[in-house]
Structures are given as structure tokens and as C-alpha cells.
Amino acid sequence: MSTDRMSELHRLFGSAPWLKVRERRDYRVKVFQSGNSVALRLPAELGLKPGLEMNLRVENGEIVSVEPVERPKRKFNAVKVAGSASDLTLLTDADRTFADRPLSWQGRDEGSAA
Questions:
Q1: DSSP-derived 3-state class of residue 95
Q2: Which of 14, 28, 59, 94 has a 20 to 30 A CA-CA distance from 86?
């Protein structure tokens, strides 16, 4: 598709990605034996890192998509930082007390809408 045609379609569809033409590239890949399994050799041009876990979607016996699996977010490990802030002091009861002040909702009728 020509560049003029693509820019015309982009202007027409705007920010509706479900209506835009998807970029499609075809690669010739090789299936080979790897232990007791078969493996698919993917081109380095795709930018995939070795060891990356992928999700393979198959519908009616045909491969539909291959997408990276989202890794779970790392959890914070408090044990690694425990004791690292040794110069901190605990709050006293006086530090936990706040002075009374008028609040914005005080004095309103209970039945009135805010």
C-alpha cells in the first residue's frame, strides 16, 4: 500500500486502532527436533530474548498467534531493607495528636446534598 494511501487512511480513521490496517510481515521459519519436542526457530529481527516465555494460541488446529506472557510483578521484600534506616526514631503519642480544626462538612444538614 502506498504511503499516500496509508496517510489518507490514518486521517480518515484517526485514533480508532481497530479500524486501522495492521502491518503484516511474513517470515519463513524452520521447525526442528529439540529433545522429545519440536521447536520453531524465529528470526532475531523480532527482538525476542532467549528464555522469554510465550503464549501460543491455536484454534481448530491452526496457529493463530504467539505472544509474550506477562511476567508477574516483583513483590517488595521487606527483609532486605529491614534495619537499613537505623537513624529513624519511633513516633511518640504527642506526635500522633492533631489540633482540632473545622472540617468542610461540619455544620451541614444531614439531609442536604453536597
A1: helix
A2: 94
Alpha carbon 46 to its chain's center: 19
Extract the C-alpha cell encoding 31. 521447525
Residue written as cell 482540632? 100
HSE-up of 96 (CA within 13 Å, CB side)?
4
51 torsion bin: left (phi>0), alpha (psi -120 to 50), beta (else) = left
SS3 state of residue 44: helix
End-to-end CA distance of the chain: give it in Å, rounded.
57
Helix count (H) and strand count (E) of the chain?
2, 4
> How many angstroms separate the CA atoms of 98 and 104, rounded?
17
pLDDT tens for the chain, 114 residues: list them: 666 776 776 666 666 666 666 778 888 888 999 999 998 888 888 888 888 888 888 899 888 888 888 877 778 887 777 777 778 888 888 888 888 888 888 766 655 554
